[in-house]
Design goal:
By secondary structure, the protein is mainly α. The chain contains 6 helices and no strands. The radius of gyration is 15 Å and the shape is globular.
């Protein structure tokens, strides 16, 4: 198994669990509220996102014309989120507040589940 498959399995499982957790509406709304109320938690969220993105890109950063480019894109999105949350917390806090709208939460959960399942499938079969 190569590194792209390994990262596909890692990100697939991670996104699947995150996507499923979003459907626990009361809990996820409390999580978002806690992030809104804690600057330290907001910064830590950004720091962890940055570390995950940096680790992903240090292991695999290849711009291909097949499914493996998704790994690189996920890595870059984590890097950007991490930078945004640590350097521009006010802007990202406004985004978190908009995220509390229930349809947005459900849509993001469905997208995370579909992407997670897709990455798991490709990680096991490609």
């Amino acid at each position: 198994m190569n590194i792209a498959n390994t990262l596909a399995l890692f990100w697939g499982a991670t996104l699947l669990v995150i996507g499923l957790s979003v459907f626990n509406k009361r809990f996820i709304l409390n999580v978002v509220q806690e992030i809104e109320n804690s600057k330290a938690l907001l910064w830590l969220n950004g720091f962890i996102a940055f570390i995950l993105g940096a680790a992903t890109l240090s292991l695999y950063s290849v711009w291909t014309s097949d499914w493996r480019v998704v790994i690189t894109i996920v890595g870059w999105l984590c890097i950007l989120k991490g930078i945004g949350l640590t350097v521009f917390p006010g802007t990202f806090l406004a985004i978190y507040k908009k995220f509390k709208v229930k349809p947005a939460i459900m849509v993001s959960g469905v997208i995370a589940i579909l992407l997670g399942l897709g990455l798991l499938y490709l990680g096991f079969t490609a």
